[in-house]
Amino acid sequence: MNDYIERVIQNAQKINNNQPEFIQALKEVLTSLEPIISSNDVYEKNAILERMTEPERIIMFRVPWVDDSGKIRINRGYRVQFSSLIGPYKGGLRFAPSVNLSVMKFLGFEQIFKNALTGLPIGGAKGGSDFDPKGKSDNEVMRFCQSFMTELYRHIGQDVDVPAGDIGVGAREIGYLFGQYKRIKNAYEGGVLTGKSVCYGGSLARTEATGYGLLFYMREMLKHHDITLQNKIVTVSGSGNVAIYAVEKAQNFGAKVVAMSDSNGCIYDENGIDLACIKEIKEVRRGRIKEYLNTHPKAKYFENNNDGVSPIWRIKTDIALPCATQNELSLEAAKILVDNGVIAVGEGANMPSTMEAIDYFHEHGVLFAPAKAANAGGVATSAIEMSQNSMRYYYTFEEVENKLEQIMINIFNECKKASDEAGLKDNYVAGANIAAFKKLAQAMLAQGIV
Ligand code: NDP
To answer: Rounded to an integer, what distance in angstroms lies between the CA atom of residue 5 and that of residue 162?
Structure first.
């Protein structure tokens, strides 16, 4: 490995104790930058990697709220403002018990590169809380969101930092957060949050954007290998925002999606998933995926048994789309997928595959679409939402979707060009990292030591 990269990784490990997810993300990016870092000492001379791997600012705060029984609850809130190099900080908020500083920093770090790939003027950030919205009443979620925003509002703004949704933060939570922000600021600053409902400033097609974008990217990647999605068997982990709209677009492209999951287990329907039923369970009732069997008795349900392989990856498929959470696809799962003849893997979630799994896919000729490129459609459409808010104007669904499609085509082409130029044919992981890094490093050099 290049000396400079090795030193930066070693130092990052030393100063970021107990942050395994952050170190994993950092290693994945930095090791893939070898061809460009070795080609020019300008990066080392200007400490580009050291600067890029240290967040500009981290905010951590107490979030007190009262539950329905009158008990006082305390959660921890975070906002990691990682980089404002090319635009206001931008990235989602995650509410989940697994949230901690390491997870926030890995997501914020990934976001810088992803946002650069979109070609739009947005920096990188991530935030959230260890609050779990699951099982909470609407009023509890509202009180939590109001308390969270009562601290966060002083750190954000439509030209400063623009949060959005992520795991556990959907239209309901964004609505409560926006309402409290507007109340405190006594101003309608539409562009301060994205993922808003269309009735008060949201963009058409934002809900669909990440899942649709993933399929546009997948289609482009397959096209370069003379493969189409028509009649392909597809499995999609998760059944949240990203997963549902990935399934919708895959079905529109003629693929047959046979499995989806949640954190308890997965369903398999050999006739093809009935998406209307999944939407009813997940978007309307906030239920569990196994309820699918109530109306589809011929489908099968496999419970997670925590043996290191989610049951969904044991199902034979042509295309696997991990759309749930980080590190959900292990090396062992990758081996099973390869043995079962998988052609392509596309990451809808952030860092769902371990580094060992990605290496295994590359070694076995599986086409691999990395998260920071393949799921960038969500944040790209958030940027389109911000621009509509600034213009005080709305695009139609088709206008937004067409822009999204073009952005995803551009991202794929950039990844391909960068991987070809680095002599790493079809390595879109390296391609995405190198293409984004070049843009960011150029901006960093231009702005001086700040
Ligand atoms: P949601 O909260 O809408 O859905 C998350 C889904 O993943 C749920 O079905 C959830 O199941 C499942 N899940 C969570 N943890 C696990 C686990 N440990 N094992 C198996 N399944 C699990 O989130 P999103 O769809 O918005 O986000 C999913 C992923 O996509 C995340 O990695 C996120 O960072 C990423 N992403 C999201 C974007 C967006 O626009 N929303 C943009 C780019 C990336 P359960 O209901 O049981 O918890």
So the answer is: 31
Answer whether 241 contacts ligand 1 (Cβ < 6 A). yes
User: Residue holding tokens 């081996």?
Assistant: 335
Query: CA 298, 304, 305, 309: dihedral to nearest 10 degrees?
Result: 110
Residue 125 has pLDDT above 90, yes or no: yes
Atom of ligand 1 nearest to the CA of 170: 3
- pLDDT tens for 39-73 read 999 999 999 999 999 999 999 999 999 999 999 99
pLDDT at 308 over 90: no
Q: Which atom of ligand 1 is nearest to the CA of 262?
A: 11
At 245, list the tokens. 């709209």
What span, in angstroms and rounded, lies between the C-alpha atoms of 180 and 201? 15
**Whose Cα sits closest to atom 31 in ligand 1?**
349
CB burial readout 128-159, b (16+ within 10 A) else e = bbbbebeebeeebbbbbbbbbbbbbbebbbbe
Query: Which residue, among 166, 221, 209, 127, has the nearest Cα to 429 in the 3D structure?
Result: 221
State the pLDDT at residue 22.
Answer: 98
Q: Which residues have a Cβ under 8 Å from the Cβ of 342 and sit 6 or more positions away?
A: 317, 318, 319, 320, 366
Residue 329, pLDDT score: 98
- Return d(Cα 409, Cα 59) in angstroms, integer: 35
Contact predicate 31/359, CB 8 Å: no
Give buried/exposed letters for 76-115 (b at 16+ CB in 10 A, else e): ebbbbbbbbbbbbbbbbbbbbeebebbbbbbbbbbbbbbb
Mean pLDDT of the chain: 97
Give the pLDDT of residue 306. 84
The owner of tokens 């600012």 is: 57
3-class secondary structure, 300: strand
- The count of other CB atoms within 10 Å of the CB of residue 21 is 22
Let me know if 425 is exposed, middle or buried by CB neighbors in 10 A (0-12, 13-18, 19+): exposed
DSSP 169: B
CA dist., res. 28 & res. 36, Å (int): 15
Amino acid at 418: A
Q: What is the pLDDT, as a whole number, of residue 20?
A: 97
Supply the residue whose CA is at minimum distance from atom 22 of ligand 1. 263
Distance 185 CA to ligand 1 centre (A): 31
Q: Evaluate: CB of 203 within 6 angstroms of ligand 1.
A: no
* Confidence at residue 283, expressed as pLDDT on a 0 to 100 scale: 95
* Whether the predicted pLDDT of 1 surpasses 90: no
> What count of other Cβ atoms lies within 10 Å of the Cβ of residue 284?
8
Q: Is the pTM of this model over 0.90?
A: yes
Give phi and psi for 271, each to the nearest 5: -85, -5
